[in-house]
Amino acid sequence: MEFVRKKCPCSIFRIPLILEPTKDDFNLKDKIKLNIPVWIRIPDLILWSKTTIEKIATSVGTPVAVVERTILKDTLDGPKVQVIINVMAEPRCKVKVIMPKEEKFIQEIEYDFLPKYCRLYQEFDHFNDCCLGLE
């Protein structure tokens, strides 16, 4: 299991496979901080540079990997970066970017996949906006 876990992030049908070792005192009722790898895309990026992409990715989560076409600037879809995010926190869909000459703009972030996670029940079966407990 340790060999497989170290080779992650892995996915099955583009859905992240999360393998974490459990502690001896593991309890299902305890709150867990769940970090998973997801791919983000930064569409219509004005300043396409390594520094800009890194800063935007870092504001979303912890950068893990970059698609080769992003490095070569060989895509019209915008940079694509894999980041590790905390599923229990609300995903960032917009990031404020400040340009070198103090110009500011809002950059949108698109996710390839987000797990269905309800923050009210802390379960992986539906999103907050579909939660019957919030009605």
Automatic annotation (TrEMBL):
<protein>
    <recommendedName>
        <fullName>DUF4283 domain-containing protein</fullName>
    </recommendedName>
</protein>
<dbReference type="InterPro" id="IPR040256">
    <property type="entry name" value="At4g02000-like"/>
</dbReference>
